[in-house]
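FORM 7B: Structural annotation worksheet

SECTION A. Query
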Amino acid sequence: MKRYFSFQWHITDDCDQRCRHCYIFSEDKGRKPEAVSWKGMQEVLANCLDFCEIYNRQPYFYITGGDPILHPRFWRLLALLKKQEIPFAILGNPFHLNDEVCARLREMGCDKYQLSIDGMRETHDWFRKPGSFDCTLSKISRIKEAGICSVIMTTVSSANIREVPDIIDTVVSHGADVYSFARYCPTSAERSTGVAPLEYRALLAACDKKFKEYAAAGCETWFDRKDHLWTLYKYETGEFQIPQDAQPGMIYGGCNCGNGHLTILPSGDLYACRRVQNSRVSSVFEDRIADVWVTEMERYRDYQKFSKCSKCELLAWCRGCPAVACGRAGDFYAPDPQCWKEV
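SECTION B. Predicted structure
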């Protein structure tokens, strides 16, 4: 079976909310939203499939925006993906989901639909817009009833970290299929703020306890320990051990940037990671992705340049989140600001 390669494809910037932690508008609140044309969609898809053929990978698309449903060619794109039997998930908003839309998404082959909960009601609605919290929770059952996996994601920051345990209880009570969280990557105006390392470790410990209690009780929600600092936490608690047959110089896990992931913006700009500021490597309308992968992308695979991680025995499995490090320090290879390990 071919290994998956994920493309996070932002087909439009158009959105019916302006989240306070949105990367699209973080540096320019008044920027004009972009959207890829139908011709551009076909070119992007062809370039991605060419890449996967060259490197013997199975493409998986995360279609997002903005809110991808707002793109006028959204359904036409999904029909094209279905025709070519390409798996995909949607990362979007809840506002345009109803039974008919969810059924149509499933008919087109949508595997997963990811929504965000970024705090309890007051905090979440402050981040996004009034009514968003209740609307999001109400759509979990509609997604599930259509036969689509419902995913809830939280972006953890200093503004909501204390609410994460309550968010977990809430999404479980509403029957979400998957729950995970990742950390916010600060923009230039927020580099002096953030979560302290031991505060973040305490969150992982609290969530680990809660996840295990839910699992023991037969909870059907799957808790995706997405953040790579989970590896460090599990290493310290004995749940992860370095394999005895691990080969020096091999990378076995950790951040997918430079390994199994690329981001495409509506403009056609190709990014190593959407969360890594200034990680543009090319344009899909100008260059062949298969060529860029072995030229421009090499700068994200120099693992010995990690100023802290290169000295750690977990280099091949963790590396924290370079996007968060870059957001804080402006350097992809800087130490993860929430890593509590001394090396």
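SECTION C. Observations
The first helix runs from residue 38 to 54. Residues 56 and 75 are 28 Å apart (CA to CA).

SECTION D. Sign-off
Analyst initials: ____
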